[in-house]
Amino acid sequence: MNFENILIEKKDSLAQVTINRPKKLNALNSATINELNVAFEALEDDDDIRVIILTGSGEKAFVAGADISEFAHFSVEEGGDLAREGQEMLFDYIENLSTPVIAAVNGFALGGGLELAMSCHFRVASDNAKMGLPEVSLGVIPGYGGTQRLPQLVGKGKAMEMIMTAGMISAEEAKGCGLVNHVTTQEELLPLVEKIASKIIRNSSVAISAAIRAINASFEDGIDGFDVEIEEFGECFGTEDFKEGTTAFLGKRKPNF
Ligand code: COA
Predict the structure, then answer these.
(1) Atom of ligand 1 nearest to the CA of 108
(2) Do 116 and 219 share a domain, yes or no?
(3) 148-186: pLDDT as tens digits
(4) Are 52 and 18 in contact (CB under 8 A)?
(5) Which site among 54, 112, 113, 154 is 20 to 30 Å from 27 CA-CA?
(6) Are 120 and 179 in contact (CB under 8 A)?
(7) Number of structural domains in the chain
(8) How far is the centre of ligand 1, averaged over its atoms, from the C-alpha of 72 (Å)?
């Protein structure tokens, strides 16, 4: 598929997906959501790719939200469908990928943009980034998982305040409340994320996928995360990576996963 709204770059085991609508501050229209879904499916199936970086084009925005011009006239039913389809196709899909996805938040991450960053496995921001869920200022609430993932990351009270005020927080504040893991300059953002990715790539991708499933399980209703951990832990013992990792350690050499 030829993409019009995103760019994909691959370098060794690393893929970078860049949302590329800088004139619209990379706002997520339905075409972009579709393209992201296709791109993430293809990268998940690509055994060479061990980490995916998601970022926005230009110096101003990661993603300034869902494209307001596309849904301003929607009915109740269309609004519900927009949220359901978007969550299934992209936001839940990314969160449950076996391949780690890191958001490099290079500017505004608002509304659907922050929700997209929160769907990624973790986030690193540049110091110019501003984050918020301003939906109530438009008369709507976050619909791509923001009311669920923001409290998971920053706690209920902080999430309530951010959502009720529709305000933006700085990258430093976001780091202070656990929304992003690191803050750096815009210039250093991708190099830092690539450095973190290179540490991930050295480890067992099979074990990392199991860890993602176990961690995510603790946030799923009706599922006991400890049970999932026990199950996934046991499964690891049957993998080639476990043999290689333990043999390499006991043989005093580096593992080759
Ligand atoms: N949906 C659609 N278009 C958007 C958009 C969005 N979420 N965010 C920005 N844009 C468009 C603007 O309409 C403008 O387009 P135009 O040049 O054709 O008029 C362009 O991107 C640049 O944005 P602009 O508002 O001129 O930039 P700014 O620097 O003055 O302000 C923001 C930046 C992020 C503060 C402002 O764009 C904004 O508030 N955006 C909406 C954020 C939001 O509510 N997101 C949640 C949506 S659910």
Answers:
(1) 34
(2) no
(3) 999 999 999 999 999 999 999 999 999 999 999 999 999
(4) no
(5) 154
(6) no
(7) 2
(8) 14
**β-pair partners for 15:** 10, 52
Residue 115 annotated to the active site? yes
| For ligand 1, atom 27: residue with the closest CA | 25
The span from the CA of 73 to the CA of 67, in Å, is: 12
- Catalytic: which of 35, 95, 135, 232? 135
DSSP-based three-state secondary structure for 16 = strand
Measured CA to CA, the distance from residue 45 to residue 42 in angstroms comes to: 5
Please tell me if the CB atom of residue 146 comes closer than 6 angstroms to any atom of ligand 1: no
Same domain for 73 and 154, yes or no, is yes
Give yes or no: residues 13 and 112 share one domain. Answer: yes
Q: Over the stretch 20-58, which tens digit does the pLDDT of each residue have? A: 999 999 999 999 999 999 999 999 999 999 999 999 999
Question: Model's pTM, two decimal places?
Answer: 0.97
Is 9 marked active-site? Answer: no
Domain that holds residue 216: 205-250
Closest CA to 240 of 225, 256, 223: 256
Candidates 115, 161, 172, 173; catalytic one = 115
